[in-house]
Write a structure and sequence with these properties.
Layout lengths: L2 H17 L4 E8 L10 E3 L1 H4 L2 H12 L2 E8 L7 E6 L6 H7 L6 E6 L2 E7 L7 H15 L12 E2 L21 E5 L7 H19 L18 H14 L2 H4 L5 H13 L3
Antiparallel strand pairs: 1-2, 1-3, 3-7, 4-6, 5-6, 5-8
Helix pairs in contact: 1-3, 5-6, 6-9
Length: 267
C-alpha cells in the first residue's frame, strides 16, 4: 500500500472523528459479497482508531472487500448523532440543511451522487425512541432512506473505498468515501428537532393509551380535587407513559402539555 494512500486515509479518518467527537466508536467491517460482518466487534476511542497501525489494518481489510462502518457508541442509547442516508440527494441539499438549522457536522460522499450526513442534535446521549423519531423527521424532510432511520444505524468511515458492486465506477474501480464537510458543531435547530420528536412520541402514546383515566382518579364526587389527588394523577400517567425510563432529560413542560391534552379528551 502506498504511503500517499495511507496518509490520505489517515487524514480523512482524523477529520471525521474530530468533527464528531465521542468517548468511543463502534466499528463494523462487512464483506461486500457475503454481507457478513468480520468476526469480533470492535469499540475504540478516537486515539486508538486514528493510530497508524489501526488505519493500516482497516485499509488491508478494505482491500480484501470489506466495507468500513462507524457509529458513535453510547451503549444502549444514541450518542447524540443522527445519521441521514441520502442515496439520491438533490444538489442543493447541504445549503437547504444549513438554512433549516440542520447543519451536518460531517457530510460524506459515499460514491458519486450518494451522500451520508451526521447531524449532532445533543451533547448528551438520547433515548432510542427519541433518536429514531428525529431521524425519521429528517429523512422525510430531505428525502433520506427511510430504511436507515433506526437509532443505531451505522454510517461509513471516510478514507476507505465503497465496496458495493452497484457503486463501481465506469472503469470498474471502487469509489472512495470522501469528506465534503467536517465541523465540530451542534445543529442550530437541535432543540426544535428534539421537541418535535418528543411531541410525536407523546401523540403515539396518547393514541395507544386507554381513553379514560382509571376509575376514581378524576371522578371526585365528594368535593374539589386535592393536591394529593392531582399528584396521584400525574404519577399514574408518568408510569403509564414510562417517562423516566424513556427520557434521560425530561422536559416537564412537555409532559404537562401531554397530560393536559389527555385530560381534555376525557370531558
Amino acid at each position: 500500500m502506498s504511503s500517499r494512500g495511507f496518509f490520505l486515509t489517515w487524514n480523512a479518518v482524523r477529520r471525521q472523528l474530530a468533527a464528531m467527537p465521542n468517548d468511543f466508536y463502534f466499528v463494523r467491517l462487512i464483506h461486500r459479497l457475503t454481507r457478513k460482518p468480520c468476526p469480533g466487534e470492535r469499540i475504540w476511542d478516537a486515539g486508538q482508531l486514528a493510530r497508524g497501525s489501526v488505519v493500516r489494518f482497516l485499509r488491508a481489510r478494505n482491500l480484501q472487500g470489506h466495507d468500513i462502518y462507524l457509529l458513535p457508541y453510547a451503549e444502549y442509547r444514541n450518542a447524540g448523532y443522527i445519521l441521514l442516508d441520502l442515496d439520491h440527494a438533490a444538489p442543493e441539499v447541504l445549503s437547504l440543511m444549513r438554512t433549516n438549522g440542520h447543519e451536518p457536522c460531517v457530510m460524506l460522499q459515499t460514491s458519486p451522487g450518494h451522500l451520508q450526513a451526521w447531524i449532532r442534535v445533543s451533547t448528551t446521549p438520547l433515548e432510542p425512541a427519541v433518536a429514531t423519531s428525529v431521524t425519521k423527521q429528517l429523512a422525510h424532510t430531505y428525502g433520506g432512506d427511510l430504511a436507515s432511520t433506526d437509532w443505531r444505524h451505522l454510517g461509513r468511515l471516510a478514507g476507505f473505498t465503497n465496496q458495493k458492486l452497484a457503486r463501481r465506477t465506469p472503469s470498474g474501480s471502487a469509489p472512495w468515501v470522501k469528506v465534503l464537510e467536517a465541523r465540530n458543531i451542534l445543529a442550530s435547530a437541535a432543540q426544535d428537532l428534539l421537541r418535535s420528536a418528543m411531541q410525536a412520541l407523546a401523540q403515539q402514546s396518547l393514541a395507544a393509551a386507554p381513553h379514560r383515566i382509571d376509575s376514581g382518579l378524576h371522578d371526585n364526587k365528594e368535593g374539589p380535587m386535592t393536591v394529593q389527588g392531582a399528584a396521584r394523577i400525574y404519577r399514574t400517567w408518568m408510569m403509564r407513559w414510562h417517562i423516566q425510563e424513556r427520557f434521560s432529560q425530561i422536559d416537564w413542560s412537555i409532559v404537562d402539555l401531554w397530560l393536559a391534552r389527555n385530560l381534555l379528551t376525557l370531558h
